[in-house]
DNA sequence: AGCGCCTAATC
DNA sequence: ATCGCAT
DNA sequence: ATGCGATGATTAGGCGCT
């Protein structure tokens, strides 16, 4: 029902009703349902992952539902979704007897077992867990089992809508009358989203909602912090933490623990922090740095808390200005002189606080390639394509592009491209290139060890204008091989289509 | 021990 | 990361 | 403006095979 509906309000409504029903009947199922909908199996900081990808899915489908892998692949190219393949195979299988019903909790528990299979024979054991589920599945269950295993439910409902529905369901389900608030529904959603942004652990949020409703003080910031250990709390935030007891922890934006990856940062933070500072959470970015070069300019806040030391711990440079020309000049300097990607622009007039995972106009990214005259724009030739998946089923989902090397008179692969076209563009390009299909990569310098291999090859026909954030040395592409590196080529960072410029009538010869 | 495949993660 | 679509 | 789901280059680390 949710996947057929396009509006988020109605999707939220449907899920809200599901959750209310479950809260009222089998409340223990709420947490597993939430985890499955969130495509997670544990809080991010626990580092527990399914470890199941497309290759595993292909293998297990072949074993559980017969047919050959080639047969499955063919079906997949038509359907664009391994879940749909599973469903199709299952429904064409004769069923000896009606299997025992799968429950949400059984599925979620099995997913946890899969995630916990490690080391020797883990792949085989994971596969057997999945086979058990697939054999017990009927109707639409194989479809959703496979999509859940791939962490992509594809029903147009993700975390934000899940949190909203949770808040609304908890509001309706609890008997306590709402406090004197204008719009209780909106407020309930805000509270749950805020609780999640402060402490993204469903194991705490869901029980709190179930036992005390949305107005439960346990959902508020300070209460949450009081309710959990300091180390648990710090594990959910980002990215450098210094705790009273002298320990340093580093986390990614998605709460992955990265402390072990930066032992040098840990030791420098400990060394350079002043003894008067007892604890902090520092939002920052780590960059590689050439210590022979240098440039520092001060910016308030942080300065009273840290010793600056060139090459070890430096503050970012900044200007404060309303003047467009000055900002432009600063951007040019940053990009052209220091090889920076661009600037972050911050409002100083409003109370411009930073909230993790929340977009706002307080902080804006200004990158060189957002601008017409800066950034890299290239004329490239699409020479192969990949069948689209999901909403791109039936058209190509991505293309392999080449640049033309006039010195050698050859086309060299430079990047794949899968964004920038409208749905109509995609149909038009697919149709146009389909008139020039050839059997293999005969005009091109192309590394066939790079997987997956394209599905279809084309004669050179069109020239596309592609914008990128920059060039990278590539082990996977052939552009300029031997020039930038003995056996590495060049590829593009964040490539996207900006225009279809011409037919390559001349280059074809 | 070394290598290739795969997955999950960053941007 | 970028981008387009639906709301 | 927001949420979602198509898609990009690249890397690290786990697992299993030789």
Automatic annotation (TrEMBL):
Record's InterPro entries? Answer: ATP-dep_DNA_ligase, DNA_ligase_ATP-dep_C, DNA_ligase_ATP-dep_cent, DNA_ligase_ATP-dep_CS, DNA_ligase_ATP-dep_N, DNA_ligase_N_sf, NA-bd_OB-fold
Query: Looking at the Swiss-Prot or TrEMBL record, what is one Pfam family this protein matches?
Result: DNA_ligase_A_N
Presence of keyword Nucleotide-binding: yes
Q: Which UniProt keywords apply?
A: ATP-binding, Cell cycle, Cell division, DNA damage, DNA recombination, DNA repair, DNA replication, Ligase, Nucleotide-binding
Query: From which domain of life does this come?
Result: Eukaryota
Q: So what family is this one in?
A: Belongs to the ATP-dependent DNA ligase family.
Q: Which protein, by its recorded name, is this?
A: ATP-dependent DNA ligase family profile domain-containing protein
């Amino acid at each position: 029902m949710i996947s057929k509906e396009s509006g988020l309000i109605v999707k939220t409504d449907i899920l809200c009703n599901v959750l209310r029903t479950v809260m009222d009947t089998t409340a223990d199922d709420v947490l597993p349902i939430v985890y499955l909908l969130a495509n997670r199996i544990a809080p991010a900081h626990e580092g527990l992952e399914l470890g199941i990808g497309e290759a595993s899915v292909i293998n297990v489908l072949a074993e559980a539902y017969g047919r050959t892998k080639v047969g499955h692949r063919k079906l997949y190219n038509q359907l664009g979704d391994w879940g749909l393949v599973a469903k199709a195979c299952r429904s064409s299988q004769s069923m000896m007897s009606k299997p025992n019903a799968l429950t949400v909790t059984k599925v979620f528990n099995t997913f946890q077992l899969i995630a916990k299979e490690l080391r020797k024979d883990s792949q085989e054991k994971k596969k057997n867990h999945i086979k058990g589920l697939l054999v017990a599945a009927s109707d639409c269950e194989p479809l959703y089992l496979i999509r859940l295993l791939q962490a992509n439910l594809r029903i147009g409902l993700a975390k934000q809508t899940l949190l909203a529905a949770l808040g609304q369901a908890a509001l309706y389900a609890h008997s306590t009358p709402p406090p004197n608030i204008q719009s209780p529904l909106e407020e309930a959603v805000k509270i749950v989203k805020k609780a999640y942004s402060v402490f993204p652990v469903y194991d705490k949020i869901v029980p709190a909602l179930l036992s005390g409703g949305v107005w439960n003080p346990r959902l508020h910031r300070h209460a949450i912090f009081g309710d959990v250990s300091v180390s648990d709390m710090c594990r959910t935030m980002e990215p450098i933490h210094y705790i009273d007891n002298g320990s340093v922890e580093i986390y990614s934006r998605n709460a992955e623990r990265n402390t072990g990856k930066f032992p040098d940062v840990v030791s420098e933070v400990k060394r350079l922090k002043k003894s008067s500072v007892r604890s902090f959470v520092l939002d920052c970015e780590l960059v590689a740095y050439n210590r022979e070069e240098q440039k520092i300019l001060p910016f308030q806040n942080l300065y009273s808390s840290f010793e600056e030391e060139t090459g070890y711990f430096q503050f970012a440079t900044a200007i404060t200005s309303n003047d467009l020309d000055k900002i432009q000049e600063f951007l040019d300097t940053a990009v052209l002189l220091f090889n920076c990607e661009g600037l972050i622009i911050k409002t100083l007039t409003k109370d411009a606080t930073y909230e993790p995972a929340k977009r706002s106009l307080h902080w804006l990214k200004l990158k060189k390639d957002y601008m017409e005259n800066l950034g890299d724009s290239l004329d490239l030739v699409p020479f192969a394509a990949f069948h689209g998946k999901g909403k791109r089923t039936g058209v190509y989902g991505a293309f392999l592009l080449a640049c033309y090397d006039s010195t050698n008179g050859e086309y060299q692969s430079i990047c794949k491209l899968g964004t920038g076209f409208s749905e109509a563009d995609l149909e038009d390009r697919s149709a146009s290139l389909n008139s020039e299909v050839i059997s293999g990569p005969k005009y091109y310098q192309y590394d066939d060890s790079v997987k997956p291999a394209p599905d279809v090859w084309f004669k050179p026909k069109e020239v596309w204008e592609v914008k990128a954030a920059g060039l990278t040395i590539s082990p996977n592409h052939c552009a300029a091989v031997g020039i930038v590196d003995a056996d590495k080529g060049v590829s593009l960072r964040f490539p996207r289509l900006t225009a279809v410029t011409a037919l390559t009538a001349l280059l074809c010869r």
